[in-house]
Automatic annotation (TrEMBL), chain A:
Entry GO MF terms: protein-transporting ATPase activity
Originating organism: Methyloceanibacter caenitepidi
Statement: the UniProt record of this protein carries the keyword Transport: yes
Signal sequence bounds: none
Domain named SecDF P1 head subdomain: residues: 241-354
InterPro entries per UniProt: SecD (IPR005791), SecD/SecF_arch_bac (IPR022813), SecD/SecF_CS (IPR022646), SecD_1st (IPR048631), SecD_SecF_C (IPR048634), SecD_SecF_C_bact (IPR055344), SecDF_P1_head (IPR054384)
Keyword Cytoplasm among record annotations: no
Biological processes annotated in GO: intracellular protein transmembrane transport; protein targeting; protein transport by the Sec complex
UniProt protein name: Protein translocase subunit SecD
Gene it is expressed from: secD
Superkingdom per UniProt: Bacteria
Residue span, Protein export membrane protein SecD/SecF C-terminal domain: 355-526
Automatic annotation (TrEMBL), chain B:
GO process annotations (BP): intracellular protein transmembrane transport; protein targeting; protein transport by the Sec complex
Function summary: Part of the Sec protein translocase complex. Interacts with the SecYEG preprotein conducting channel. SecDF uses the proton motive force (PMF) to complete protein translocation after the ATP-dependent function of SecA.
Gene: secF
Membrane topology, record value: Multi-pass membrane protein
Primary location: membrane
Region annotated Disordered, chain positions: 303-322
Organism: Methyloceanibacter caenitepidi
InterPro entries reported for this sequence: SecD/SecF_arch_bac, SecD/SecF_bac, SecD/SecF_CS, SecD_SecF_C, SecD_SecF_C_bact, SecF_bac
Name of this chain's protein: Protein-export membrane protein SecF
Segments traversing the membrane: 21-43, 136-157, 164-185, 191-211, 239-258, 264-287
Amino acid sequence: MLHFQKWKVILVGAIVLAGFIFAAPNLFPSSALQGLPSWVPHKQVNLGLDLQGGAHLLYRIDETELVDDWLDTIRGDVRETLRSNRIGYIDLEMNSADRSVSVRIRKPEDVDKAYSELRKLVAPVGNDVFGGFSGNDMDIAKSGDQITLTATEVGLNERISSAIQASIETIRRRVDAFGTTEPSIQREGRDRILVQVPGVSDVQRLKGLIGETGKLEFKLVDPSVNAAEIAMTKKVPPGDELLYSEDEPPIPYVLKDRVLVSGENLVDSQPGFDARNGEPVVNFRFDAAGAKRFGRATQDNVGLPFAIILDNKVISAPVIREPILGGSGQISGNFTVQEANDLSVLLRSGALPAKLSVIEERTVGASLGADSIDSGQKAAIAGMVLVVLFMFAAYGLFGAFANIALLVNVALIFAVLSLMGATLTLPGIAGIVLVIGIAVDANVLINERIREEIRAGKSPIAAVDSGYSRALIAIIDSNVTTLIAVLVLFWLGSGPVRGFAVTLTIGILASMFTAVTVTRMLVAAWLRWKRPKELPL
Amino acid sequence: MFRGITFVPPDTKIDFVSQRAISWFVSAFLTVVPLVLVATVGLNMGIDFQGGTLIEVQTKENPAKLADIRGKISGLGLGEVQIQEFGAPDEVLIRIASQPTEEEQQASIAKVKEALGDSVTYRRTEIVGPTISSELIAGGTLAVVVAMIGILIYVWFRFEWQFAVAAIASLVHDVTATIGLYALLQLEFNVSSIAAILTIIGYSLNDKVVIFDRIRENLRKYKRMPLVELLDRSINEMLSRAILTHVTTLLAMLPFLFFGGEAIYGFAVAMCFGIVVGAYSSIFVASPMQLILGVQREAFSGSTSSAKGKTEKGDAEAAAGA
């Protein structure tokens, strides 16, 4: 057992060397690494938000709004279908509570035709693992003269999925504009999005930017009524709606219901400055269809004010001085430079499909992060030094072998963490410390076993040999059980707990390698070199 | 050549299992008292499991004027508010009870920031909404239970059901004792506490499996030795290893307790306690339980005759050497 095949020695040596090489970049500040040639490993361990500061925001998409929007679309489709087939109907209603749209057909003889036409609205949803058919997005039912379309669970999940995807894209564009490094935006569970932005200092602004739906609309102001009066009485004329500005106190506006142009027709928006007074403004440009509609609307309403509305709040209501035909315009509204910048980002990134609300928020200031990493480092190094001294005190030379293995172990953890792009958190540092305990235990088991074998009268080589092979069973059993607990942590945990589990898993695997293989090779080499009559153990 | 200090003499003969009456009493104490503590004093539930807002600030004046801050915040109508010093004298922790909805929760933090203005810098804010906190409780409990089941199955496969049951019983003992510590010291119980508990489970089990391994080996080796004697012998044989391992792990963990910073203090306390309590339960709970459960020797008589010959010869040599 103490003779190793050459290829094994080379392989183990290569792994150890690779461990040191890939762990090495972590010893230097990242600025120092920039200057090195490209073939030198650059990857460092990512520091978790708790160690470098930053924001962790968990959003949930508003399902009710999503369902209502969808039912609204279905209602529109039903109306369109029945009209184009010249089928008379009454009581076209949507019911949010049971996610359905129902309609009654006027003439009994039309019911079957209506049913077969409306059936065409039902679409299959293929979103299971094998890409196969997993159900329809709606159920259609007929009772008497009434036809009901009900949104199904699969259909709803599909809607949520695609809304989440779209939201992630939108959020990514918005966060990118924020200019921080390596934000992470990912789906969590069924209806959630986790946004992690390291190093961000102004979390309020970030939240403002992400959380705004960003729905832009242009509507005409109804000139025939007095907005202040209607705001008091709340009696809004039919075809109109009452909205407020973001001022303090809010200014009421009575607007025509119909949307002239919406943000969907926007192709670009950029912050800029008004040529006349130098105030920050947002310049925007419409696509061809939008430009045409905006041109026609402004042509017909010269001299009247129109409102620019963002998320149902009036930003400004300028008077149309002349038709805006070129498809580009300007939004002004007493913005600061930053506000104009954020608004242009919001418009450029497109609207969110539904409202997002923050259900969990954890932010760590950069100074606290720096303090945490500082104290974590200190504690880890102190712990490491204590362990190394203790191991040497307990086992002398064999303790030194164990210490070398420990060093390799820590290097391997950092190498794997760096290569995987995994994140090191404060609990992760604690995990590394625990790995040190577990790795030491493997060596303690081996060394104690060797001592027992020596006491049983075995020769040094035989004692080492059976010490290793017998301790191996206990090492594997004990490490696998720990691994089970840790994998559960990874599977069910989140955030820092997961980081902790990752470091612990890597550490346990590395320790099984180093404690058993690396130390054994060291001991074997020493035995061959010294050929001792008795072991110093 | 320096051969190392022998911290534990190699031939201890301590009656661990034979004197089990005392240890049963201690174990019962370590299991019942925590439950009583949790029921009466209660756990200091962090916002992870309760929902709520936590704001850590550093004041510009040192030390912080807690009364001042309390005055500014208590008037905001946010329900129960806790303000306490945290670590350094200019660091203050503000805790606000969970608000009915997620929107109100978001609004609460804005109100606090408005009230405190520029007098402080914000080091950390955490807002956990009501939905998340209940999920975290469910997830945490599930994690502990699933880990226990996984371990039960593994130990059952590798050993015998008696070992698996003994392992789980002693792990439950460790978990209740640790939770009791949280209640006693009123340490904040949060997601890291669950991580600490799972880690303690993993570590403590590691320890038990090592002793089980030796018990199994001795069951094969000494076929006619009374079980009590065999268990005592197994524990004594592993005593040196157990002490060295626990001391090193404690040495690695203790620095976190003293200068790991506030963020990891609670975690480190639990870990250090868990290491000690896990070491205790390996010897005084997991092993004596074998007596109650009645380990079947036949299950371990499957070793080959050559292996048997080897071990018996080893024994003879040991006897001759002694």
